[in-house]
Protein backbone atom coordinates (compact mmCIF):
# COMPACT_ATOMS: atom_id res chain seq x y z
CA UNK A 1 0.00 0.00 0.00
CA UNK A 2 1.52 3.30 -1.11
CA UNK A 3 2.18 5.84 1.66
CA UNK A 4 4.32 8.94 2.15
CA UNK A 5 4.38 9.59 5.91
CA UNK A 6 8.17 9.49 6.19
CA UNK A 7 8.59 11.71 3.16
CA UNK A 8 6.22 14.31 4.61
CA UNK A 9 8.11 14.26 7.91
CA UNK A 10 11.40 14.78 6.09
CA UNK A 11 9.91 17.68 4.14
CA UNK A 12 8.89 19.37 7.38
CA UNK A 13 12.39 19.00 8.79
CA UNK A 14 13.98 20.16 5.52
CA UNK A 15 11.82 23.30 5.44
CA UNK A 16 13.49 24.42 8.69
CA UNK A 17 17.09 24.04 7.54
CA UNK A 18 17.05 24.22 3.70
CA UNK A 19 15.68 27.34 1.96
CA UNK A 20 12.42 26.39 0.31
CA UNK A 21 12.75 22.87 1.65
CA UNK A 22 14.72 21.90 -1.47
CA UNK A 23 16.15 23.72 -4.48
CA UNK A 24 17.11 23.32 -8.10
CA UNK A 25 15.71 20.71 -10.45
CA UNK A 26 15.72 18.12 -7.64
CA UNK A 27 12.93 20.02 -5.90
CA UNK A 28 9.47 18.51 -6.32
CA UNK A 29 7.72 21.86 -5.83
CA UNK A 30 6.61 21.87 -9.47
CA UNK A 31 5.71 18.18 -9.62
CA UNK A 32 2.27 16.69 -8.96
CA UNK A 33 0.97 16.39 -5.42
CA UNK A 34 2.53 13.64 -3.25
CA UNK A 35 5.56 13.10 -5.49
CA UNK A 36 8.33 11.72 -3.24
CA UNK A 37 11.16 14.12 -2.45
CA UNK A 38 13.57 11.74 -0.70
CA UNK A 39 15.01 8.40 -1.85
CA UNK A 40 16.96 5.73 -0.01
CA UNK A 41 17.94 3.18 -2.66
CA UNK A 42 18.61 2.94 -6.39
CA UNK A 43 19.39 -0.19 -8.37
CA UNK A 44 19.25 -0.83 -12.09
CA UNK A 45 16.30 1.15 -13.35
CA UNK A 46 14.40 1.38 -10.04
CA UNK A 47 14.44 3.82 -7.14
CA UNK A 48 12.97 3.46 -3.64
CA UNK A 49 11.65 6.41 -1.65
CA UNK A 50 11.93 7.04 2.09
CA UNK A 51 8.65 5.20 2.68
CA UNK A 52 9.80 2.08 0.85
CA UNK A 53 7.77 2.65 -2.32
CA UNK A 54 9.59 1.41 -5.41
CA UNK A 55 9.39 3.07 -8.83
CA UNK A 56 10.52 2.36 -12.36
CA UNK A 57 12.50 5.57 -12.86
CA UNK A 58 12.13 7.39 -16.16
CA UNK A 59 14.09 10.43 -14.95
CA UNK A 60 17.38 8.62 -14.28
CA UNK A 61 18.53 11.26 -11.80
CA UNK A 62 17.71 13.86 -14.49
CA UNK A 63 20.07 12.08 -16.83
CA UNK A 64 23.17 10.58 -15.16
CA UNK A 65 21.89 7.00 -15.04
CA UNK A 66 22.75 5.67 -18.50
CA UNK A 67 23.76 2.07 -17.84
CA UNK A 68 21.80 1.34 -14.65
CA UNK A 69 22.07 2.51 -11.06
CA UNK A 70 24.88 0.67 -9.29
CA UNK A 71 26.17 -0.99 -12.47
CA UNK A 72 28.44 -3.78 -11.17
CA UNK A 73 31.43 -3.06 -13.42
CA UNK A 74 31.40 0.64 -12.52
CA UNK A 75 30.80 -0.08 -8.82
CA UNK A 76 33.81 -2.40 -8.87
CA UNK A 77 36.24 0.16 -10.33
CA UNK A 78 34.89 2.85 -7.99
CA UNK A 79 35.58 0.66 -4.94
CA UNK A 80 39.04 -0.32 -6.19
CA UNK A 81 40.02 3.29 -6.93
CA UNK A 82 38.63 4.54 -3.61
CA UNK A 83 40.96 2.14 -1.82
CA UNK A 84 43.96 3.71 -3.60
CA UNK A 85 43.48 7.46 -3.97
CA UNK A 86 40.66 9.88 -4.76
CA UNK A 87 40.92 13.61 -3.97
CA UNK A 88 44.49 14.62 -3.19
CA UNK A 89 47.14 17.26 -3.82
CA UNK A 90 47.27 16.45 -7.52
CA UNK A 91 45.38 14.37 -10.06
CA UNK A 92 46.03 10.68 -10.50
CA UNK A 93 47.34 9.34 -13.84
CA UNK A 94 43.72 8.52 -14.66
CA UNK A 95 43.19 12.10 -15.86
CA UNK A 96 45.49 11.37 -18.80
CA UNK A 97 43.86 8.00 -19.46
CA UNK A 98 40.41 9.59 -19.43
CA UNK A 99 41.40 12.46 -21.72
CA UNK A 100 42.87 9.95 -24.17
CA UNK A 101 39.73 7.80 -24.04
CA UNK A 102 37.38 10.75 -24.54
CA UNK A 103 39.31 12.36 -27.39
CA UNK A 104 39.55 8.93 -29.01
CA UNK A 105 35.75 8.70 -29.11
CA UNK A 106 34.69 12.26 -30.04
CA UNK A 107 35.53 13.09 -33.64
CA UNK A 108 36.17 16.81 -33.22
CA UNK A 109 38.14 16.52 -29.96
CA UNK A 110 41.91 16.95 -29.69
CA UNK A 111 41.97 17.71 -25.94
CA UNK A 112 39.79 17.48 -22.84
CA UNK A 113 39.39 19.26 -19.49
CA UNK A 114 37.36 17.94 -16.56
CA UNK A 115 35.11 19.53 -13.96
CA UNK A 116 32.05 18.52 -11.92
CA UNK A 117 28.78 19.90 -13.30
CA UNK A 118 27.35 20.65 -16.70
CA UNK A 119 27.21 24.32 -15.71
CA UNK A 120 30.97 24.22 -15.06
CA UNK A 121 31.56 22.93 -18.58
CA UNK A 122 29.28 25.46 -20.30
CA UNK A 123 30.84 28.31 -18.29
CA UNK A 124 34.26 27.16 -19.49
CA UNK A 125 32.94 27.10 -23.05
CA UNK A 126 31.72 30.68 -22.67
CA UNK A 127 35.09 31.82 -21.31
CA UNK A 128 37.02 30.03 -24.06
CA UNK A 129 34.85 31.57 -26.78
CA UNK A 130 35.55 35.05 -25.42
CA UNK A 131 39.24 34.33 -24.89
CA UNK A 132 39.62 32.98 -28.44
CA UNK A 133 39.71 36.39 -30.16
CA UNK A 134 38.95 38.74 -27.28
CA UNK A 135 35.35 39.31 -28.39
CA UNK A 136 32.20 39.50 -26.25
CA UNK A 137 28.94 38.64 -28.04
CA UNK A 138 27.60 35.10 -27.66
CA UNK A 139 24.51 33.71 -29.37
CA UNK A 140 22.00 31.49 -27.55
CA UNK A 141 18.74 29.90 -28.68
CA UNK A 142 15.68 31.30 -26.90
CA UNK A 143 14.63 29.21 -23.86
CA UNK A 144 17.57 26.83 -24.26
CA UNK A 145 18.94 25.53 -20.97
CA UNK A 146 22.70 25.72 -20.53
CA UNK A 147 22.97 25.64 -16.73
CA UNK A 148 22.13 27.72 -13.68
CA UNK A 149 24.79 30.41 -13.49
CA UNK A 150 23.89 34.12 -13.73
CA UNK A 151 24.46 34.18 -17.50
CA UNK A 152 22.07 31.30 -18.19
CA UNK A 153 19.81 30.47 -15.23
CA UNK A 154 16.11 30.42 -16.20
CA UNK A 155 15.15 32.16 -12.94
CA UNK A 156 15.78 35.92 -12.51
CA UNK A 157 16.59 35.98 -8.76
CA UNK A 158 20.08 37.38 -8.12
CA UNK A 159 20.65 38.18 -11.80
CA UNK A 160 21.38 41.71 -13.03
CA UNK A 161 21.19 43.05 -16.57
CA UNK A 162 24.96 43.25 -16.79
CA UNK A 163 25.20 39.47 -16.41
CA UNK A 164 23.53 39.12 -19.82
CA UNK A 165 24.61 42.31 -21.52
CA UNK A 166 26.43 40.59 -24.39
CA UNK A 167 24.05 37.75 -25.26
CA UNK A 168 21.89 37.68 -28.38
CA UNK A 169 18.97 35.25 -28.64
CA UNK A 170 17.56 33.52 -31.71
CA UNK A 171 15.00 30.84 -32.55
CA UNK A 172 16.30 27.27 -32.51
CA UNK A 173 16.36 25.48 -35.89
CA UNK A 174 15.85 28.77 -37.75
CA UNK A 175 18.83 29.53 -40.05
CA UNK A 176 17.56 33.02 -40.87
CA UNK A 177 17.08 33.95 -37.21
CA UNK A 178 20.60 32.72 -36.52
CA UNK A 179 21.96 34.71 -39.47
CA UNK A 180 20.20 37.85 -38.22
CA UNK A 181 21.65 37.35 -34.73
CA UNK A 182 25.16 37.10 -36.20
CA UNK A 183 24.59 40.37 -38.07
CA UNK A 184 23.47 41.98 -34.82
CA UNK A 185 26.71 40.88 -33.15
CA UNK A 186 28.73 42.59 -35.86
CA UNK A 187 32.48 42.26 -35.50
CA UNK A 188 32.18 41.35 -31.79
CA UNK A 189 30.99 37.74 -32.19
CA UNK A 190 32.78 35.37 -29.82
CA UNK A 191 30.72 32.20 -30.13
CA UNK A 192 27.51 30.38 -30.93
CA UNK A 193 26.02 28.00 -28.36
CA UNK A 194 23.93 25.15 -29.72
CA UNK A 195 21.81 22.59 -27.92
CA UNK A 196 22.09 19.14 -29.52
CA UNK A 197 18.32 19.20 -29.97
CA UNK A 198 15.56 21.56 -28.87
CA UNK A 199 14.74 20.54 -25.30
CA UNK A 200 12.91 23.50 -23.76
CA UNK A 201 11.02 22.75 -20.53
CA UNK A 202 7.20 22.70 -20.88
CA UNK A 203 7.47 22.45 -24.69
CA UNK A 204 7.71 19.99 -27.54
CA UNK A 205 11.21 18.79 -28.35
CA UNK A 206 12.77 19.16 -31.81
CA UNK A 207 15.64 17.36 -33.51
CA UNK A 208 18.31 19.56 -35.10
CA UNK A 209 17.74 20.50 -38.72
CA UNK A 210 20.81 19.81 -40.85
CA UNK A 211 20.58 23.17 -42.65
CA UNK A 212 20.42 25.00 -39.31
CA UNK A 213 23.46 23.10 -38.00
CA UNK A 214 25.43 23.74 -41.20
CA UNK A 215 24.50 27.40 -41.04
CA UNK A 216 25.82 27.62 -37.48
CA UNK A 217 29.10 26.02 -38.57
CA UNK A 218 29.45 28.31 -41.61
CA UNK A 219 28.68 31.49 -39.69
CA UNK A 220 31.15 30.61 -36.94
CA UNK A 221 33.86 30.03 -39.55
CA UNK A 222 33.07 33.20 -41.52
CA UNK A 223 33.24 35.30 -38.35
CA UNK A 224 36.21 33.49 -36.76
CA UNK A 225 34.09 32.54 -33.76
CA UNK A 226 33.73 29.26 -31.88
CA UNK A 227 30.79 26.89 -32.27
CA UNK A 228 29.92 25.16 -28.98
CA UNK A 229 27.55 22.17 -28.71
CA UNK A 230 26.16 21.74 -25.20
CA UNK A 231 25.95 17.94 -25.05
CA UNK A 232 25.54 17.79 -21.27
CA UNK A 233 21.99 16.42 -21.48
CA UNK A 234 22.12 14.40 -24.71
CA UNK A 235 25.72 13.20 -24.78
CA UNK A 236 26.00 9.47 -25.60
CA UNK A 237 22.20 9.15 -25.72
CA UNK A 238 21.97 10.08 -29.40
CA UNK A 239 25.33 8.79 -30.65
CA UNK A 240 28.64 7.34 -29.48
CA UNK A 241 30.11 10.67 -30.54
CA UNK A 242 29.06 14.30 -30.33
CA UNK A 243 25.31 14.48 -30.94
CA UNK A 244 25.72 16.82 -33.92
CA UNK A 245 27.59 14.06 -35.74
CA UNK A 246 24.04 12.85 -36.49
CA UNK A 247 23.65 15.85 -38.82
CA UNK A 248 27.25 15.88 -40.03
CA UNK A 249 28.43 19.02 -38.22
CA UNK A 250 31.43 19.22 -35.92
CA UNK A 251 31.77 22.02 -33.35
CA UNK A 252 34.95 23.56 -31.99
CA UNK A 253 33.93 22.80 -28.40
CA UNK A 254 31.44 20.43 -26.80
CA UNK A 255 30.32 20.23 -23.19
CA UNK A 256 29.66 16.89 -21.48
CA UNK A 257 28.22 15.74 -18.17
CA UNK A 258 25.41 13.67 -16.70
CA UNK A 259 26.17 10.19 -18.12
CA UNK A 260 29.95 10.61 -18.21
CA UNK A 261 30.51 8.76 -14.92
CA UNK A 262 27.14 6.95 -14.83
CA UNK A 263 26.25 8.84 -11.65
CA UNK A 264 29.70 9.75 -10.37
CA UNK A 265 30.23 13.55 -10.26
CA UNK A 266 32.22 14.46 -13.35
CA UNK A 267 31.77 16.59 -16.46
CA UNK A 268 34.03 17.73 -19.26
CA UNK A 269 34.67 20.12 -22.07
CA UNK A 270 36.49 18.88 -25.13
CA UNK A 271 37.72 20.85 -28.10
CA UNK A 272 39.63 20.99 -31.34
CA UNK A 273 43.11 22.38 -31.71
CA UNK A 274 41.52 25.57 -33.02
CA UNK A 275 40.41 26.32 -29.46
CA UNK A 276 43.45 24.92 -27.62
CA UNK A 277 45.20 28.24 -27.05
CA UNK A 278 41.99 29.81 -25.73
CA UNK A 279 41.55 26.86 -23.36
CA UNK A 280 45.09 27.34 -22.06
CA UNK A 281 44.53 31.05 -21.48
CA UNK A 282 41.65 30.87 -18.97
CA UNK A 283 41.95 30.06 -15.27
CA UNK A 284 39.40 27.56 -14.01
CA UNK A 285 39.70 25.07 -11.19
CA UNK A 286 37.97 23.29 -8.34
CA UNK A 287 39.26 21.34 -5.36
CA UNK A 288 37.28 18.28 -6.42
CA UNK A 289 37.64 18.59 -10.19
CA UNK A 290 40.67 16.28 -10.23
CA UNK A 291 39.30 13.49 -8.01
CA UNK A 292 40.29 10.04 -9.22
CA UNK A 293 37.20 7.97 -8.34
CA UNK A 294 34.85 9.72 -10.77
CA UNK A 295 37.53 9.47 -13.46
CA UNK A 296 37.80 5.73 -12.91
CA UNK A 297 34.02 5.50 -13.25
CA UNK A 298 34.11 7.57 -16.44
CA UNK A 299 36.81 5.41 -18.02
CA UNK A 300 34.73 2.29 -17.33
CA UNK A 301 31.56 4.00 -18.55
CA UNK A 302 33.26 4.92 -21.82
CA UNK A 303 34.46 1.32 -22.22
CA UNK A 304 30.90 0.06 -21.85
CA UNK A 305 29.67 2.70 -24.29
CA UNK A 306 32.22 1.50 -26.85
CA UNK A 307 31.85 -2.24 -26.31
CA UNK A 308 28.15 -2.87 -25.61
CA UNK A 309 24.90 -2.39 -27.50
CA UNK A 310 23.59 0.04 -24.86
CA UNK A 311 22.60 2.66 -27.48
CA UNK A 312 20.69 0.23 -29.64
CA UNK A 313 19.03 -1.16 -26.52
CA UNK A 314 17.85 2.18 -25.10
CA UNK A 315 16.61 3.15 -28.56
CA UNK A 316 14.56 -0.05 -28.76
CA UNK A 317 13.23 0.42 -25.23
CA UNK A 318 12.40 4.06 -25.95
CA UNK A 319 10.54 3.08 -29.12
CA UNK A 320 8.50 0.51 -27.17
CA UNK A 321 7.68 3.07 -24.47
CA UNK A 322 6.58 5.63 -27.06
CA UNK A 323 4.49 3.19 -29.09
CA UNK A 324 2.76 1.76 -26.01
CA UNK A 325 1.85 5.15 -24.54
CA UNK A 326 0.53 6.54 -27.82
CA UNK A 327 -1.65 3.46 -28.39
CA UNK A 328 -2.99 3.53 -24.83
CA UNK A 329 -3.79 7.23 -25.04
CA UNK A 330 -5.79 6.70 -28.23
CA UNK A 331 -7.67 3.78 -26.67
CA UNK A 332 -8.80 6.05 -23.82
CA UNK A 333 -9.63 9.01 -26.04
CA UNK A 334 -6.52 11.14 -25.43
CA UNK A 335 -3.92 12.48 -27.86
CA UNK A 336 -0.25 12.65 -26.88
CA UNK A 337 2.60 14.75 -28.20
CA UNK A 338 5.58 12.39 -27.91
CA UNK A 339 8.57 14.36 -29.22
CA UNK A 340 12.35 14.33 -29.19
CA UNK A 341 14.70 11.36 -29.52
CA UNK A 342 13.14 8.12 -28.30
CA UNK A 343 16.05 7.79 -25.85
CA UNK A 344 15.21 11.22 -24.34
CA UNK A 345 11.44 11.48 -24.75
CA UNK A 346 9.11 14.32 -23.94
CA UNK A 347 5.51 13.25 -23.34
CA UNK A 348 2.81 15.93 -23.29
CA UNK A 349 -0.95 15.86 -23.80
CA UNK A 350 -2.58 17.65 -26.71
CA UNK A 351 -5.00 20.40 -25.66
CA UNK A 352 -3.59 20.55 -22.13
CA UNK A 353 -2.33 24.16 -21.80
CA UNK A 354 -2.39 24.16 -18.01
CA UNK A 355 -0.98 20.61 -17.69
CA UNK A 356 -4.00 19.31 -15.77
CA UNK A 357 -4.09 16.08 -17.77
CA UNK A 358 -0.34 15.60 -17.61
CA UNK A 359 -0.23 16.17 -13.88
CA UNK A 360 -3.16 13.89 -13.18
CA UNK A 361 -1.72 11.17 -15.39
CA UNK A 362 1.79 11.25 -13.89
CA UNK A 363 0.44 11.32 -10.33
CA UNK A 364 -1.77 8.30 -11.04
CA UNK A 365 1.15 6.42 -12.61
CA UNK A 366 3.43 7.37 -9.70
CA UNK A 367 0.99 5.84 -7.21
CA UNK A 368 1.34 2.61 -9.24
CA UNK A 369 5.14 2.55 -9.24
CA UNK A 370 6.20 4.54 -12.33
CA UNK A 371 8.12 7.82 -11.88
CA UNK A 372 7.70 10.21 -14.84
CA UNK A 373 7.71 13.97 -15.35
CA UNK A 374 4.70 15.85 -16.72
CA UNK A 375 6.81 18.73 -18.10
CA UNK A 376 10.47 17.68 -18.46
CA UNK A 377 12.04 15.32 -20.95
CA UNK A 378 12.66 11.84 -19.59
CA UNK A 379 15.56 9.41 -20.08
CA UNK A 380 15.95 5.77 -21.04
CA UNK A 381 18.69 3.66 -19.44
CA UNK A 382 20.31 0.41 -20.48
CA UNK A 383 19.08 -1.48 -17.39
CA UNK A 384 15.48 -1.16 -18.61
CA UNK A 385 13.98 -4.38 -19.92
CA UNK A 386 10.93 -5.35 -21.94
CA UNK A 387 9.42 -6.46 -18.63
CA UNK A 388 9.96 -2.97 -17.20
CA UNK A 389 8.13 -1.50 -20.16
CA UNK A 390 5.31 -4.02 -19.79
CA UNK A 391 5.01 -3.16 -16.08
CA UNK A 392 5.09 0.53 -16.96
CA UNK A 393 2.31 0.19 -19.52
CA UNK A 394 0.18 -1.72 -17.04
CA UNK A 395 0.50 1.24 -14.65
CA UNK A 396 -0.02 3.88 -17.33
CA UNK A 397 -3.09 2.05 -18.65
CA UNK A 398 -4.66 2.34 -15.21
CA UNK A 399 -3.53 5.97 -15.04
CA UNK A 400 -5.29 6.79 -18.31
CA UNK A 401 -8.43 5.17 -16.94
CA UNK A 402 -8.12 7.29 -13.78
CA UNK A 403 -7.89 10.62 -15.59
CA UNK A 404 -10.65 9.64 -17.98
CA UNK A 405 -12.95 9.12 -15.00
CA UNK A 406 -11.80 12.20 -13.07
CA UNK A 407 -11.08 14.59 -15.95
CA UNK A 408 -13.62 17.19 -14.87
CA UNK A 409 -12.11 17.49 -11.38
CA UNK A 410 -8.42 17.66 -12.34
CA UNK A 411 -6.61 20.85 -11.32
CA UNK A 412 -3.22 22.28 -12.23
CA UNK A 413 -0.58 22.66 -9.53
CA UNK A 414 -0.79 26.16 -8.07
CA UNK A 415 3.00 26.67 -8.17
CA UNK A 416 3.11 25.67 -11.84
CA UNK A 417 0.18 27.93 -12.73
CA UNK A 418 1.95 30.88 -11.07
CA UNK A 419 5.18 30.13 -12.92
CA UNK A 420 3.47 29.88 -16.30
CA UNK A 421 1.61 33.15 -15.70
CA UNK A 422 4.92 34.82 -14.86
Automatic annotation (TrEMBL):
Q: Which cofactors are required for activity?
A: pyridoxal 5'-phosphate
Q: Please list the GO terms describing molecular function.
A: pyridoxal phosphate binding; transaminase activity
Q: Could you tell me the keywords of this UniProt record?
A: Pyridoxal phosphate
**Which protein family is named in the record?**
Belongs to the class-III pyridoxal-phosphate-dependent aminotransferase family.
Q: Which InterPro entries match?
A: Aminotrans_3, Aminotrans_3_PPA_site, PyrdxlP-dep_Trfase, PyrdxlP-dep_Trfase_major, PyrdxlP-dep_Trfase_small
Q: Transmembrane residues, as ranges?
A: none
Q: What is the recorded name of this protein? A: Glutamate-1-semialdehyde 2,1-aminomutase
Amino acid sequence: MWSNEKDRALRERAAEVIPGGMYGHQSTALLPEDYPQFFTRAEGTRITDADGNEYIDFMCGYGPNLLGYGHPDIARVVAEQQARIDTSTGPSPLIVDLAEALTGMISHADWAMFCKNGADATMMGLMMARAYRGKRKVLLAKNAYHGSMPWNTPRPGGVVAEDRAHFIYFDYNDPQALTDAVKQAGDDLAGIFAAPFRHDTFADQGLPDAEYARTARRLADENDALLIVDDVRAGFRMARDCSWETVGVRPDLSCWGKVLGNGQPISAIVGSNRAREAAQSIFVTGSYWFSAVPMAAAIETLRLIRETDYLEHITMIGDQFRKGLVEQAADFGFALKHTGPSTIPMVLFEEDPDFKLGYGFCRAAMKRGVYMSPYHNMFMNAAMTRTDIADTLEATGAAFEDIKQSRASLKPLAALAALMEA
